[in-house]
Write a structure and sequence with these properties.
The complex is a heterodimer of chains A (321) and B (699). Chain A has helices at 3-14, 34-52, 56-80, 202-211, 234-240, 249-253, 268-285, 304-316; strands spanning 17-18, 20-22, 29-32, 84-87, 93-94, 99-106, 112-119, 130-134, 139-146, 152-155, 159-163, 170-178, 181-185, 220-222, 244-246, 256-259, 289-293, 296-301. Chain A has 321 residues and is α+β, with helices and mostly antiparallel strands. In chain A, strands 1, 3, 7, 8, 11 and 12 form a six-stranded mixed beta sheet that branches. Chain A has a four-stranded antiparallel beta sheet with strand order 2-4-6-9, with no helix packed on it. In chain A, strands 5-13-10 form a three-stranded mixed beta sheet. With 699 residues, chain B is α+β, with helices and mostly antiparallel strands. Helices cover 49% and strands 12% of the residues of chain B. Chain B contains 23 helices and 19 strands. In chain B, strand 18 (469-477) and strand 19 form a beta hairpin. The chains are: A alpha+beta (321), B alpha+beta (699). At the A-B interface, helix 2, helix 3 and strand 8 of A face helix 6, helix 7 and helix 8 of B.
Chain lengths: 321, 699
């Protein structure tokens, strides 16, 4: 590991994690770019030519550009100064899919142009970088995609906000470590084996599954979270003013048991993948299911909330616990 | 309208590229007057090609094609300029390079190279002219280049050009004070190395002459120098101020043909003076040329030779006075001139044959005519003087017309002038005379310089203007040396006798304006002259002398170059300090509401109520009530009042700066009371009494 890498690590470790990041003189760095150095060399050359040819207009031109260059340093710094950044909550994704981080810039001052946002370690002109303009007294948001390689809770890596505006002679930047995480569910196995059948023969279950949302009318009950729109008895709801769902016998009685032991795959991660695939499939079919992992049991349920709870349990399950 | 709409519809890439090409073309424009034609055609063709590619969104040409064009350009430069060094060749190459670089605008880095080359191209324009007009047009160029630079750093959407232009102008204007400061105080120093012989051609005495070159300075009525005669004033036709002597002719241009011998080893001018001397004094304006235009003939003898302060002046073999560096300051020299003199070798010497050379293939009719004249029976054995007299008689007899606007001449300029058009001014007459003399076997050369002065002296000083620039001829007569012949005098004797300077006819627009409204025309001319004068005085002639005058006005008794540096550094340092102070203040500047929250939290903490920074006053009031009980009731109600004022619906006085201050005064007083009560209650503990009076903190 080179000295440079180690220094960078040390430096990155110094960046505290925070919910919001206000750019001030304390946390904005600024250095001339290579173009800035070349520009300075050009100016020196022009000044030498002016001296040697005794060109007063040459002096004037060199000094005009020098003045504009120096002012551009302040403008570059001012492009970042005063901005406040915060991160919108990032929706969870399956491992290997892209999660969208949405960073919001809040600008209390003048309009800002050419502000780039990217992960630390990339350049402003690399593919993964997003450029935005922030209107005066307004907001703008930039979306960065991050791909979590495996399941679990991932910390959002250090972000770099930088600008070269207006002349590209100076680069001002700031490092922000957002105090936020991205949840990655286990990637569902494809193709996955069929759902395990709880308490009934497989063909019967399959037949029921084909009828899916229950053509048989078994009864009426109050709407519960997780009931699909198709289960709602709209006519009745319109009359009574309360949401009521039809209660299908199959759903109420026959719930799926997604069990650790049933998912007989090679390793821990593969098992979790299979369970994830089953959760997705069961949710698609609208069947209630419960999930049991060693040390973690999720009671039966269905719908979006159940799906999220199940996937989160899979994502965060720790063999050691 | 159509164009505007099409422009609006262009994709951003294409629009930006076309804008850049326009700026580059505009920057090159002033160069087109003196670039070789192939270079102009090539540069325009490449820019056009690039524009077409941009409009179609087509890919850029391959690298090797660009390389091939570059090689061709270098070869053409070598062919037309015979060198790759020096001002003209350098500018030719720079223009081609600039155009070619636009074909390589692949990455952002390439774009930046184009901008920096562009700034350099702007500078090269000043090598040729520093007039107000060029300065204004280059200001537009710089603005355009900065705008393109800003555009390159606004990657989002399709920012309007006007917006980018405004941002660029904003940056430049903010930098203006620094520019003025540096311009005024940056010490003007002598050239660091060498003497650029091809320095700015503001005067006609630039060391070369192409037919038409003098006419371009005839418009320049600025003062070249002032002359004061300490004895008798010579007649007008004797006032020849000697500048560069041109003896090499390549068919297009006359140049100094003397091989570059090191400065000290140059042969002495063989000068023998006769008669009585004319003591005189010259005050030469900064010409940025390394020469002294002395009155003919000023010999290099003690008492007669000029001794300029701070310069080394040497007389060349061709009797012209040369300095070791260009004149950047107004200079005063005294010398003695001898209107009667003998100059040059009396007998034939080896070098003389060089002055017979004529470029082959040029002006065939003139050569034939000259041979025919010399071979006539009556002219056999005629001396150089007799041949010169024949030529002058011919010029006088035939209808040659002296005019400042003869139009442009083609390749065989002398043929055209001598036989067809017969229109010209001093350059044409002198060049034709020298070509004819050489064709007849007489060594001859062109002398450039000034001729004559303003007729009426001002305070004893006769003014020589740039428009007095003149070209005449010298031929070699065995036994006498070099003899002056001024063929212009044969046609327009009044030009010489009364020193009427070169005056151009008014242009078409000016002429029309004069007929419509003479008063307005005169007013405008006066305004233009005043502007030009100020430009010359404040910008072009701003020199070390002017800087020292400025320092004297600032209170320096005997200013030096170092003082300039001190003043400059002092000003820059104080400006930086002021900026730093402002930044510090700006950092600590807080919203009054935020500041109040901070102070309030501190005061409450001293009372033992731990509030967090983000609690609103209402929450703090609750905390105070809980912690202090009845003793804190007033404080709590004060806090609640503040909360209502801030978040309630428009009653209770609001939370302006003044209202907040009033509120704080009441709150601090109450806090002090509570604090004292607390201390009294806990007087047993020494810590309790040491609390600082809260209200004593700045309110």
């Amino acid at each position: 590991m080179g000295l440079r890498t180690r220094m960078r690590r040390w430096w990155l470790a110094r960046v505290p994690a925070s919910e919001t990041w206000t750019l001030t003189q304390r946390n904005i760095y600024i250095l001339p770019t290579r173009a800035g150095v070349v520009f300075a060399a050009t100016l020196v050359l022009m000044l030498l030519a002016s001296i040697n040819y005794q060109l007063n207009l040459g002096y004037a031109l060199s000094f005009l550009l020098a003045g504009a260059g120096l002012v551009s340093m302040h403008l570059t710094h001012g492009t970042l100064r005063g901005l406040t950044l915060h991160l919108r909550p990032t929706p969870a994704v399956f491992a290997g899919d892209a999660a969208m981080l949405e960073v919001v810039f809040v600008n209390p001052g003048r309009a800002r142009h050419g502000v780039a946002l990217h992960f630390e370690g990339l350049g402003a002109h690399d593919a993964g970088s997003v450029w935005s303009d922030v209107p005066a007294q307004g907001q703008a948001s930039a979306q960065l995609s991050i791909v979590p390689p495996q399941r679990g809770l991932h910390r959002v890596p250090v972000l770099v906000i930088e600008t070269l505006f207006p002349f590209g002679l100076f680069r001002a930047w700031s490092l922000w470590h957002p105090a936020a995480t991205v949840l990655a569910w286990p990637r569902p196995e494809t193709p996955a084996p069929p759902l395990p059948q709880a308490g009934a023969r497989a063909d019967e279950q399959a037949a029921r599954a084909a009828r899916s949302d229950g053509a048989e009318f078994d009864g009426v009950r109050a709407w519960r979270r997780g009931d699909t729109l198709r289960q709602v008895l709209w006519k009745k709801a319109a009359r009574s003013g309360e949401l009521v769902s039809r209660d299908t016998a199959g759903h109420a009685a026959r719930e799926l048991a997604l069990e650790w032991q049933a998912a007989s795959a090679a390793g821990v991660e593969q098992r979790l993948s299979r369970l994830a695939a089953w959760v997705v499939e069961a949710d698609r079919q609208g069947q209630p299911y419960r999930l049991s992992l060693p040390g973690r049991d999720l009671p039966a349920g269905r719908g979006e909330a159940q799906r999220r709870a199940a996937l989160q349990a899979l994502a965060l399950w720790d063999a050691a616990a | 309208m159509m164009v505007a709409r099409a422009w609006q519809r262009l994709p951003r890439e294409a629009r930006d590229t076309l804008f850049q090409l326009g700026v580059i073309g505009w920057t090159m424009l002033p160069h087109f007057a003196h670039l070789p034609p192939w270079c102009v055609v090539m540069a325009l063709a490449i820019l056009g090609w690039r524009g077409r590619l941009a409009l179609r969104g087509a890919p850029l040409p391959r690298r090797w094609i660009v390389g091939l064009v570059l090689a061709a350009a270098i070869a053409l430069t070598l062919w037309s300029e015979r060198t790759l060094l020096g001002r003209d060749a350098g500018v030719t190459l720079l223009v081609v390079l600039m155009a070619l670089k636009t074909l390589e605008l692949r990455a952002r880095r390439d774009a930046l190279v184009v901008f920096f080359l562009g700034f350099f191209l702007v500078l090269t324009n000043f090598l040729y002219s520093q007039s107000l007009l060029v300065a204004l047009s280059m200001l537009v160029s710089v603005w355009g280049l900065l705008t393109a630079l800003v555009l390159a750093h606004m990657p989002v959407g399709r920012p309007p050009l006007a917006q980018a232009g405004r941002l660029a102008a904003h940056a430049a204007l903010l930098g203006l004070p620094l520019m003025v400061l540096l311009f005024a105080l940056f010490p003007r120093v002598a050239p660091l190395w060498g003497v650029p012989q091809d320095a700015s051609g503001r005067t006609g005495l630039s060391g070369s002459m192409a037919l038409g070159g003098v006419a371009s300075i005839a418009n320049d009525d600025s003062i070249a120098m002032r002359v004061r005669f300490l004895g008798p004033v010579p007649a007008g036709e004797q006032l020849y101020f000697r500048g560069p002597v041109l003896s090499r002719f390549d068919g297009r241009e006359w140049t100094r043909g003397v091989p570059s011998v090191p400065f000290a080893q140059r042969p002495q001018a063989q000068l023998q003076v006769l008669g009585s001397g004319v003591p005189y004094e010259l005050t030469i304006e900064p010409s940025r040329l390394a020469l002294l235009p002395m009155l003919e003939m000023t010999p290099d003898t003690p008492g007669s030779a000029p001794e300029p302060q701070g310069l080394v002046a040497v007389q060349r073999a061709d009797a012209q006075w040369q300095t070791d560096r260009p004149l950047t300051e107004r200079l005063r020299v005294s010398a003695v001139a001898y209107p009667e003199y003998r100059h040059g070798p009396r007998v034939e010497v080896p070098g003389l044959q060089d002055l017979l050379a004529l470029p082959p293939g040029f002006n065939p009719r003139s050569l034939a005519w000259a041979h025919e004249l010399r071979d006539r029976a009556e002219n056999v054995g005629a001396s150089a003087e007799e041949l010169a007299a024949l030529l002058l008689a011919h010029v006088r007899r035939e209808e040659y017309l002296y005019t400042l606007e003869p139009g442009s001449y083609g390749r065989d300029a002398v043929d055209e002038f001598w036989f067809d058009r017969r229109l010209g001014f001093c350059e044409h007459f002198a060049a034709a005379f020298v070509v004819m003399m050489r064709a007849m076997g007489v060594p001859a050369r062109i002398v450039t310089g000034y001729q004559g002065t303003d007729p009426v002296p001002v305070d004893g000083y006769y003014v020589v203007r740039q428009s007095h620039a003149h070209a005449w001829a010298e031929y070699w007569q065995r036994g006498k040396g070099w003899v002056r012949a001024d063929p212009t005098a044969a046609v327009a004797p009044e030009r010489i006798r009364t020193s009427r300077n070169l005056q151009p006819r008014p242009g078409l627009v000016a002429g029309a304006l004069t007929t419509v409204s003479p008063a307005l025309a005169q007013q405008m001319r006066r305004f233009w002259e005043a502007m030009n004068n100020r430009w010359n005085q404040w910008v072009l002639n701003y020199s070390r002398g002017t800087q020292f005058d400025l320092l004297k006005r600032l209170g320096f008794r005997a200013p030096e170059a170092l003082d300039l540096v001190y003043v400059l550094l002092g000003l820059l340092c104080s400006a930086s300090l002021a900026a730093a102070a402002w930044a510090l203040w700006d950092r600590h500047r807080q919203d009054p509401w935020q500041r109040l929250q901070g102070r309030m939290a501190q005061a409450l903490r001293l009372l033992g109520v731990n509030v967090s920074a983000h609690d609103p006053p209402r929450t703090r009031a609750d905390l105070v009530r809980r912690k202090l009980g009845p003793r804190g009731a007033t404080l709590a109600s004060q806090l609640e009042a503040l909360d209502r004022a801030r978040y309630g619906r428009g009653q209770d006085g609001g939370t302006g700066r003044l209202a907040l201050r009033r509120w704080w005064r009441g709150f601090a007083r109450e806090a002090r009371v509570v604090h004292d009560a607390e201390s009294a209650a806990r007087s047993a503990t020494p810590r309790g009494s040491s609390g600082a009076p809260l209200g004593a903190r700045r309110g």
